[in-house]
Amino acid sequence: MIYFDNAATTRPYDEVLRTYQEVATKIFGNPSSLHHLGSNATRILEASRKQVADLLGVSYHEIFFTSGGTESDNWALKGVAFEKERYGRHIIVSDIEHPAIKESAKWLSEHGFLVDYAPVDSRGFVDVAALAELITPETILVSVMAVNNEVGSIQPIKAISEVLDDKPTVTFHVDAVQAIGKIPVSWYLTSRVDLASFSSHKFHGVRGVGILYKKEGKRLAPLLTGGGQEHHLRSTTENVAGIAASARALRMVFDKEEIALAKISKMKQVLLQALGEFDGVHLFSGNQDFAPNIITFGLKGVRGEVIVHAFEEHDIYVSTTSACSSKAGRPAGTLMAMGVPQKEAQTAIRISLDDDNDMSQVEQFLTIFKHIYTKTQKVRK
């Protein structure tokens, strides 16, 4: 099997699964319980929080655990909106955000908030000047992803941070779900970033665990109320085993980041060069200013799902665009925002690499692609 769909989800490391099993089996107490089983669970929970904070270079008190990236994104947008609505009701998000952001923004627009969408250029990068023009005295939140999940464009977070430097009343949120282990932490956690979202299963952790970084002193309304967990901001019994496993996954990813990125980048270069030699192949992703693991391309006249299933017959797994959009049968929203015609956007295929992959898999992929290319020749005429 060749798995080239790592932007959708990654395989949990064996060590991560062992951590999960050990904690779930031996330290199964509720952290809110007063007895020693609860105390042991609290100790693991807080040790995991400190490890995550140390790895991200932030304070222990700035890390909050959620059920995943979607919850973290929802909490960031809705939590800020309802906490700050007395000061303004204007929100800006980019036009290429993940559905967790875009649908949250849409929901807020249906509940009295004004949402503007910052445009992107033809390569999928946010137009910083256009975003700056959207800011008004009523603006309370700007949300921009660090790495686009569909084409891999690395967004100008530092430039946006500079725009917001003299606007302390505007909360800046970054969806960093696709950034862990792909670009330096300093890129997406600038001193101006107030909130950032992460998801464990994107960096070889387990599903059902997310992280929200909240800069100390920033206020956020809770989405979940109840028992008062996570400093009364996110009530529900914590998934201690999943959190401990996620902390270990994050450490492992950072420990091997330099070597892994060199390997992944080399594979991407080979794929980009090889795919670019085929007539009728449109490369939507580039090398410079793009994440090292994502390549999105299209084969003229052939819908993306046809290619996905053709590869699947050879036990090779890729996707059309994001996992959320592909199953719904929607063309890549990022490509549409980039000005790509819908018919062309519907041809999109996304390869997303990991250091679990190797050059022999790249060669096998290209061999099978040549076969599919020939097989679809009549369709493309």
Automatic annotation (TrEMBL):
| Protein family according to the UniProt entry | Belongs to the class-V pyridoxal-phosphate-dependent aminotransferase family. NifS/IscS subfamily.
Mind telling me what this protein is named?
Cysteine desulfurase
Q: Which PROSITE patterns match?
A: AA_TRANSFER_CLASS_5
What organism, scientifically named, is this protein from?
A: Streptococcus sciuri
Phylogenetic placement of the source organism: Bacteria, Bacillati, Bacillota, Bacilli, Lactobacillales
Specify the domain of life of the species encoding this protein.
Answer: Bacteria
What does the UniProt keyword field contain? Iron, Iron-sulfur, Metal-binding, Pyridoxal phosphate
Q: InterPro entries, alphabetically?
A: Aminotrans_V_dom (IPR000192), Aminotrans_V_PyrdxlP_BS (IPR020578), Cysteine_dSase (IPR016454), PyrdxlP-dep_Trfase (IPR015424), PyrdxlP-dep_Trfase_major (IPR015421), PyrdxlP-dep_Trfase_small (IPR015422)
Q: Which cofactor does it need?
A: pyridoxal 5'-phosphate
> What does the record list as coiled-coil region(s)?
none
A Pfam family assignment:
Aminotran_5
Start and end residues of each Aminotransferase class V domain = 2-365
* Statement: the UniProt record of this protein carries the keyword ATP-binding: no
PANTHER family from the entry? CYSTEINE DESULFURASE ISCS 2-RELATED, CYSTEINE DESULFURYLASE FAMILY MEMBER
